[in-house]
Design goal:
Layout lengths: L6 H27 L7 H4 L13 H10 L40 E3 L6 H6 L9 E2 L2 H4 L4 H14 L9 E4 L7 H14 L11 E5 L4 H12 L6 E3 L4 H13 L9 E5 H6 L1 H4 L6 E4 L11 H7 L5 E5 L8 H11 L7 H16 L5 H18 L3 E2 L13 E8 L3 H11 L2 H8 L7 H15 L5 H6 L13 H8 L9 H16 L4 E5 L2 H14 L3 E4 L5 H12 L7 E5 L14 E4 L6 H8 L11 E8 L3 H20 L27 H5 L5 E2 L2 E2 L17 E3 L8 H6 L4 E8 L10 H7 L7 H27 L1
Parallel strand pairs: 3-8, 3-9, 4-6, 4-7, 5-6, 7-8, 10-15, 11-13, 11-14, 12-13, 14-15
Antiparallel strand pairs: 1-2, 10-19, 16-17, 18-19
The chain binds zinc ion.
The site of zinc ion has 6 residues, from loops.
Organism: Bemisia tabaci
InterPro entries: Helicase_ATP-bd (IPR014001), Helicase_C-like (IPR001650), P-loop_NTPase (IPR027417), Rad54_N (IPR013967), SNF2-like_sf (IPR038718), SNF2/RAD54-like_C (IPR049730), SNF2_N (IPR000330), SNF2_RAD54_helicase_repair (IPR050496)
Subunit structure: Interacts (via N-terminus) with spn-A/Rad51.
C-alpha cells in the first residue's frame, strides 16, 4: 500500500520516535543510577505493570524522577538511531514491551494474562510476559483491514488459533497490501515475543524470481534502514552456497541479515544448504506455485526446518480443490488429512454437487461438505476481497464487451471448426484434450484477435486451414505481404481503434492494453504507428530494471505515452500502472486469476481517477466460452474461499465442452446461457440486485443489448464499430437507478438507430439456437 506521509502524520511519527528515544535513554539512566532498577512512577500505570521489589519513599521517587528525565538529542527533528537499542546500553532487569501498548494507534498482538497483585509478588521476575506491540512505524500506516490481517497471522504462527499448527494462508485479493502485512508480521517476530525476546531469528522469503528485488524494495521502503535483507537470485553456484551457508550458520542473538529473499528456483537448487538448519519463519509469495504436492519446489520447501509457514496468494484455487489441499497441507500438515482422505471426504462430493445435473441429495451433501471444509480452513486462512478497496479507491466500472466477428473472421472461423482436424478431435471421446485440439484452440483464439495472426497457417495450408486461402480476397494477401495493417478485418481491433481515438480526443486518460499473445502486441504497435500514438511495451523479455524505468515514465502525468502494452504472460504482479485509468483486456485467459491480475494494475492504491476496465470477447466464439469457464472456476474458488454458499450453477460441464461450436445469431452466448429473467426481448426490465458489484457473477451485472443503456460515454461511441452486447458493473454499490430502463429509451430517442430491430429478432432466434445446442450437447455426452 503506497501512501504518502501527510505532514501531520510525519509529526506524529517523529513524536513517537522521540518517545522511544526517551524510553531508551531512560533505561540507560536507571541503570547507571541504581543496580536494583525500578521503573519511575510515571510508567507504573502503563501495562504491564513493572514489578517493584521494594517501595520507594516520596523523596527517593523525586530523585529518581530527576535522574530519569528524558534526554533529548539537541538536533532539530532528530529521529533517533535506526536500531531499537543504542550501542552499549543494556536492558535493565524489568521486562517491558518494546513499544507502548497504550500509545494511540498501537497494534497489540499479544496481551499477557492479567496477574493479581498477589501473583505479582510470587512470580519470577524473569518470567513475566510482556505485550507484543507492532512497531509504531508500521502500525501508524496500516489500514484497518491490514491491522486485522497482521493480528490474524500472528495468532496463527504462534499456535493460538489451532493447537499445534503454526501456518497460515494470507489470501487477500490483490491490492490489499499482503506484502506490507507480511513485513509487519516478520518484523514483529524478529524483534519481539511475549517472553521479552524475539520469537524468531531468521526469515526466509521465497518468491518468484521477478519479485526478489521487489520484496527487498518493499522491506527497505517500510522499515527504512532498520534491517538489511539478503537477496539471492541466480549467480554463481559456489558464491550462493557460501552466502546461504553463512546465513544458515548464524545463530547469534542478533543476525546481521535476518531476512533472506530467494527465488523459488534458487531455493530448489540450494535446498541441501537451506534444509540443514532451522529457520523461524518462511514466507512463500505467489504461493499457488505450491499447488501441487508432487512438484520439486514443493518437496524442497516442505523439507525446510521451519514450523511457522505463511503462504501468500491472491488466488488460492486455480483449477481444482486438490490444489487447494496442497496449499493448506503445506502450511499445516495433516489439517485436512492425507490427499486421499481429502479427495474422498471433500473433493468428490463437492464437485458432484456443483454439476448442473446434480440431484438434490448430491447438492445437499456437497453443501454440507463444503461448509465443513470452510470451517476448518477458515481457522488458518484469511481472505478479503478487493471490494474492500472501494472504500479507498475511486469507482471502477468493469465492462464485458461482446463484439461480432468481421465477415472474414467468421468465414475463416467456420472453415476451421468444420475442418477434418477439428472433427477428428471432437469425435475422440477421450477426455484429455489432444495436441491438435490445443493447436486448433489457439488458432481460433488468434483468429478472434485478427486474421493476420493465423496468416502463416493459412498461407501454408496447415492442419485445419487447408484451402482456407480461397476465402481471402486477393488484395488482402497482397496487403498482408506488404505488412500494412488492415484494421477492418478484425472487429475487436475496430472497436479498439475507435475507442483509442475517442479517448485521445475527448479525455486526458491513459490506457493499458493487455493480451496473451506477443503477436497481438505487435498488432497494437502497428496500430499505434498508423495512428501516431505514443506507447510503451512490456513483455517477458524485458529486464526487471528496464521495466521499472518504463513504468515510472508511463505513470508520470507529464510523460507523453498514451498507451501501455502489457503481455499477460510477462508476470504483471507488483506492476503499478496507476498512470492509466482505463484498461483493455483484448483476449480472455483460461485462468481468471491472470485476468484479475492484469486488471489490478490500474485499480490500486494511488489511483485518483474513476477506472474503466474493458474485457473484449468475440460474440458466440470460443472467447465467450472461455469467459463462461472462468465463471465456473470462479464459482468454485469463491465458494470455498469467500464462503459464498450460493454458487451460481449456470454452466454445466457439458456446456464447457462445446468449445468448437460457433454460436451464430446471438448477441451474447453468455447472456443466453445464464437464462436471464431480468431481460425481456433484449431490454433489461429489472436492475441487478442492489448489493451487487464487480465481484458478483455476470447474471448480477447490468445487461445492455443497446448502447443507450451504457453508462460509459466512451464505450457508447464505440458501439457502432461492432459491439453486440455489454455486461457492466461497478466496484462500489452505486445507488440503483429507480426508473425503469425503458424510460431512458425515450430520453435517448435522438440516438435511436436501427439496431433495435435486429437485436429483438436476434435474441429471439438465440433462444432457439441455444436450446438446440444444449440438446446436441446432451446427445454428445451420452
Ligand atoms: Zn439480462
Amino acid at each position: 500500500m503506497r501512501r504518502s506521509l501527510a505532514p501531520s502524520r510525519l509529526k506524529r511519527l517523529n513524536g513517537e520516535e522521540e518517545e522511544e528515544n526517551a524510553k531508551r535513554s531512560k533505561r540507560g539512566r536507571i541503570l547507571s543510577s541504581s543496580k536494583k532498577s525500578v521503573a519511575p512512577e510515571t510508567v507504573v500505570e502503563k501495562p504491564p505493570a513493572p514489578i517493584t521489589a521494594e517501595s520507594l519513599s516520596n523523596h527517593e521517587a523525586l530523585i529518581r524522577q530527576i535522574l530519569t528525565k528524558p534526554f533529548k538529542v539537541p538536533i532539530l527533528n532528530y529521529q533517533g538511531g535506526i536500531g531499537s537499542r543504542a550501542l552499549g546500553v543494556r536492558r535493565d532487569g524489568v521486562r517491558r514491551p518494546l513499544h507502548d501498548p497504550m500509545a494511540p494507534n498501537a497494534l497489540v498482538l499479544y496481551t499477557p494474562p492479567q496477574l493479581s497483585a498477589h501473583d505479582l509478588l510470587k512470580v519470577d521476575k524473569d518470567k513475566v510476559q510482556v505485550h507484543v506491540v507492532v512497531d509504531p512505524v508500521l502500525s501508524n500506516i496500516l489500514r484497518p483491514h491490514q491491522r486485522e490481517g497482521v493480528k490474524f497471522m500472528y495468532e496463527c504462527v504462534t499456535g493460538v488459533r489451532i493447537e499445534n499448527a503454526y501456518g497460515c494462508i494470507m489470501a487477500d485479493e490483490m491490492g490489499l497490501g499482503k506484502t506490507l502485512q507480511c513485513i509487519t508480521l516478520m518484523w514483529t517476530l524478529l524483534r519481539q515475543g511475549p517472553d521479552c525476546k524475539p520469537l524468531i531469528k531468521k526469515v526466509v522469503i521465497v518468491t518468484p524470481s521477478s519479485l526478489v528485488k521487489n520484496w527487498c524494495n518493499e522491506i527497505v521502503k517500510w522499515l527504512g534502514g532498520r534491517v538489511h535483507p539478503l537477496a539471492i537470485d541466480g549467480g554463481g553456484k559456489e558464491h550462493i552456497d557460501k552466502q546461504l551457508t553463512s546465513f544458515m550458520q548464524t545463530y547469534s542473538q542478533r543476525v546481521v541479515n535476518p531476512i533472506l529473499v530467494i527465488s523459488y528456483e534458487t531455493f530448489r537448487s540450494h535446498a541441501h544448504v537451506l534444509n540443514k538448519g532451522e529457520v523461524g519463519l518462511v514466507l512463500c509469495d505467489e504461493g499457488h506455485r505450491l499447488k501441487n504436492c508432487e512438484n520439486q519446489t514443493y518437496q524442497a520447501l516442505v523439507k525446510l526446518q521451519c514450523q511457522r509457514r505463511v503462504l501468500l496468494s491472491g488466488t488460492p484455487i486455480q483449477n481444482d480443490l486438490l490444489e487447494y489441499f496442497s496449499l493448506v497441507h503445506f502450511v499445516n500438515q495433516g489439517l485436512l488429512g492425507t490427499s486421499q482422505e481429502f479427495r474422498k471426504q471433500y473433493e468428490n462430493p463437492i464437485l458432484r454437487g456443483q454439476d448442473a445435473y446434480a440431484t438434490v441429495d448430491e447438492r445437499k451433501k456437497a453443501e454440507e461438505r463444503l461448509s465443513q471444509l470452510i470451517g476448518i480452513v477458515n481457522r488458518c486462512m484469511i481472505r478479503r476481497t478487493s471490494a474492500l478497496l472501494s472504500k479507498y479507491l475511486p469507482d471502477k466500472t468493469e465492462q464485458v464487451v461482446c463484439i461480432n466477428l468481421s465477415s472474414i473472421q467468421k468465414q475463416l472461423y467456420q472453415h476451421l471448426i468444420k475442418s477434418d482436424a477439428v472433427r477428428r478431435t471432437v469425435k475422440d471421446s477421450n477426455d484429455k484434450v489432444s495436441l491438435t485440439a490445443l493447436s486448433s484452440i489457439t488458432s481460433l483464439k488468434k483468429l478472434c484477435n485478427h486474421p493476420d495472426l493465423v496468416m502463416d497457417k493459412i498461407l501454408s495450408g496447415a492442419d485445419g486451414f487447408e484451402k482456407a486461402i480461397s476465402l481471402l480476397p486477393k488484395e488482402y494477401i497482397d496487403t498482408y505481404k506488404r505488412q500494412k495493417l488492415q484494421v477492418e478485418l478484425s472487429a475487436k481491433l475496430m472497436v479498439l481503434d475507435t475507442m483509442l481515438a475517442v479517448i485521445k480526443t475527448t479525455t486526458t486518460d491513459k490506457i493499458v492494453l493487455v493480451s496473451n499473445y506477443t503477436q497481438t502486441l505487435d498488432l497494437f504497435q502497428r496500430l499505434c504507428s498508423l495512428r501516431n500514438y505514443n506507447y510503451v511495451r512490456l513483455d517477458g523479455t524485458m529486464t526487471i530494471k528496464k521495466r521499472a524505468k518504463i513504468v515510472e515514465k508511463f505513470n508520470d502525468p507529464t510523460g507523453g505515452d498514451f498507451i501501455f502494452m502489457l503481455s499477460s504472460k510477462a508476470g504483471g504482479c507488483g506492476l503499478n500502472l496507476i498512470g492509466a485509468n482505463r484498461l483493455v483486456m483484448f483476449d480472455p485467459d483460461w485462468n481468471p486469476a491472470n485476468d484479475d491480475q492484469a486488471m489490478a494494475r490500474v485499480w490500486r492504491d494511488g489511483q485518483k481517477k474513476p477506472c474503466f476496465v474493458y474485457r473484449f470477447l468475440c460474440t458466440g466464439t470460443i472467447e465467450e466460452k472461455m469467459m463462461q469457464r472462468q465463471a465456473h472456476k470462479k464459482a468454485l474458488s469463491s465458494s470455498v474461499v469467500d464462503c459464498e454458499e450460493d454458487v451460481a450453477r449456470h454452466f454445466s460441464l457439458s456446456e464447457l465442452r462445446s468449445l468448437f461450436q460457433l454460436e451464430e445469431n446471438t448477441i451474447s452466448d453468455t447472456h443466453d446461457k445464464i437464462k436471464c429473467k431480468r431481460c425481456v426481448n433484449g431490454v433489461q426490465m429489472k436492475p441487478p440486485p442492489a448489493d451487487s458489484d464487480c465481484t458478483c457473477d455476470l447474471s448480477c451485472w447490468y445487461h445492455c443489448a443497446d448502447k443507450r443503456w451504457l453508462v460509459d460515454p466512451i464505450l457508447k461511441s464505440c458501439w457502432p464499430a461492432g459491439i453486440s452486447f455489454v455486461f457492466y458493473q461497478h466496484s462500489t454499490k452505486v445507488k440503483v437507478d429507480e426508473k425503469p430502463a425503458v424510460k431512458e429509451e425515450v430520453e435517448d430517442e435522438t440516438e435511436k438507430d436501427n439496431d433495435e430491430v435486429d437485436d429483438g429478432s436476434g435474441s429471439e432466434s438465440n433462444e432457439d439456437s441455444s436450446s438446440d445446442f444444449e440438446k446436441e450437447n446432451e446427445a454428445y455426452n451420452d
